[in-house]
Write a structure and sequence with these properties.
Layout lengths: L1 H45 L4 H14 L2 H11 L9 H26 L3 H9 L4 H31 L11 H12 L2 H35 L1
Helix pairs in contact: 1-2, 1-4, 1-6, 1-7, 1-8, 2-4, 3-4, 4-6, 5-6, 6-8, 7-8
């Protein structure tokens, strides 16, 4: 056990740096994915001709194929058509496109959960469709979608481990590099698992806090 403690002490700075990169990739992909997912959800809810069919195809393709395959297509496949990306942009792009598909469905479900009477009341007051969505429906849909959005973020934190296959330095690749030097896979993989767990637990607490605040504001 003393050997493990010495190993953890030596490896901790490298693992924490990898965890910081993991968190950064997850947050960047989440912000970009939320923006893209909202746009996709709006297109589908508004049932815009052609665009809604393209959005549905995009969502189906992203949700129906493994993230690992999507990473390979972007990093190794796109250079075949003249678009070559460095590992970090390729990894962030893959994570963003993947999570946006799930977020769009969460937001679409939240919008569907708002009572139809809200639409009718807004239209009776002279609001346009977009005004109703922006000022009345979207805020309520966001509150309803918080649990699902938070789950997507927690999943995204774990999914960042897949970008290590294209040499993006995050927690998993950092762990592998330390293992290559120490030949101690079990304790180091366990340490990585604990860090992933701690990050997930942190966002679970943040999710509950946000839910409580939104529910309190809704009740006022």
């Amino acid at each position: 056990m003393s050997d493990w403690m010495a190993l953890f002490e030596a490896a901790l700075p490298v693992l924490l740096q990898g965890a910081a990169h993991t968190l950064l990739f997850a947050l960047v992909a989440m912000v970009l994915g939320l923006a893209l997912g909202f746009a996709v959800a709006m297109v589908q809810v508004a049932r815009l001709p052609v665009l809604s069919q393209l959005a549905a195809f995009y969502v189906s393709a992203m949700r129906g194929t493994p993230l690992l395959v999507q990473i390979f297509v972007i990093y190794y496949g796109l250079p075949g058509v003249g678009l070559e990306l460095d590992p970090v942009p390729a990894g962030v792009l893959a994570l963003t496109l993947n999570v946006a598909a799930y977020l769009s469905e969460s937001l679409r479900g939240g919008i569907a959960g708002v009572a139809t009477g809200q639409w009718e009341a807004a239209f009776s007051l002279g609001f346009t469709w977009w005004q109703t969505m922006r000022h009345i429906i979207a805020p309520q849909a966001l509150r309803l979608s918080v649990p699902s959005l938070s789950n997507s973020l927690i999943s995204l934190i774990k999914d960042t481990s897949l970008v290590s296959v294209i040499t993006v330095t995050e927690l998993m690749l950092a762990t592998k590099e330390v293992i290559a030097q120490t030949f101690q896979p079990l304790p180091l993989y366990l340490a990585a698992a604990v860090i992933y767990w701690a990050l997930s637990a942190l966002f679970e607490r943040l999710q509950r806090h946000v839910e409580n605040r939104l529910n309190l504001a809704h009740q006022r």
